[in-house]
Amino acid sequence: MAETNEALKHLEKALKIDIQKPIIWIQALTHSSYAKWDKKNNTGDNERLEFFGDAILKFIISEHLLNKHPNFSEGKLTKIRAQLISDKHLAVIAAQLELHNHVRLSYSEQKTGGANRESTLSNTFEAIIAASYFDIGLEPTRRWVIHIFNSYSEIQNLEDASDPKSQLQELLQRNKISLPNYTILKSEGPDHKKTFHIELTCQFRNQEHKTIGIGPSKKEAEQEAAKLMLLALKV
Question: What are phi and psi of 207, to 5 degrees?
Fold first, then answer.
């Protein structure tokens, strides 16, 4: 019991919440291996909570992205969301929250490193989201989830992770400006090791701007030109 009390105190501090129903949080921290191993355990495991927490997390992150990026396409929003709620990314956040120190596992699962397993960490994180929903409601849960993602994750980097060509195109479209033009100035070197020089021209704020990108392929040279253009436009 002392260990579970410590776990709940840690979660209250990390999530900045006041836990009202401890039993559901203990269940959220209970791996299926522990539920089977400890015959006296009466909380059940966290699998059903993980199932529901996954749905809540998807809703919260979808709404957040939709409100924050009104000009992003459905495809781009989907791509960013997939990265944010991937098992790999959730496991990183869970580790930052030190859930590996508090998840309840069977002895054998502990010995084989189950506490640090990606699936264990990500599932436990989703389970505590569901526990939070059932304990304190959706709005407080939404607030701490977004806070945690902003504090512990790469949310901003992922949201800004679209390639320079896409960023430039979106910028021009938002300002109702014609799309940029890419022209190959020259290519040099042997076929297996060519270098491309590509000029990018675009209109912005009633001025024509030009940059030149250099790269080992047309695509990379175009991306470099777009990156330089974004810097030149200071956006």
Answer: -135, 150
Residue 179 sits at φ, ψ, to 5 deg, of -65, 155
Q: What is the pTM of this model?
A: 0.67
CB 89, CB 83: distance < 8 Å: yes
Confidence (pLDDT) at 157: 57
| Residues of the chain where predicted confidence (pLDDT) is lower than 50 | 1
Q: Which two tokens stand for residue 51?
A: 């199932």
State residue 119's pLDDT score.
93
Instruction: Sketch out the chain's domains with CATH numbers.
Output: 2-159 (1.10.1520.10), 164-233 (3.30.160.20)
pLDDT at 29 (0 to 100):
94
Q: Which residues are catalytic?
A: 54, 126
Question: Quick one: pLDDT at residue 76?
Answer: 81
- Taking alpha carbons only, the member of 92, 91, 68 closest to residue 80 is 68
| Tokens representing residue 234 in the block | 């200071």
Spatial CB neighbours of 54, under 8 Å, sequence gap ≥ 6: 85, 126
HSE-up (13 A, CA, CB side) for residue 82: 7
Q: What are φ and ψ of residue 34, in 5° steps?
A: -70, -40
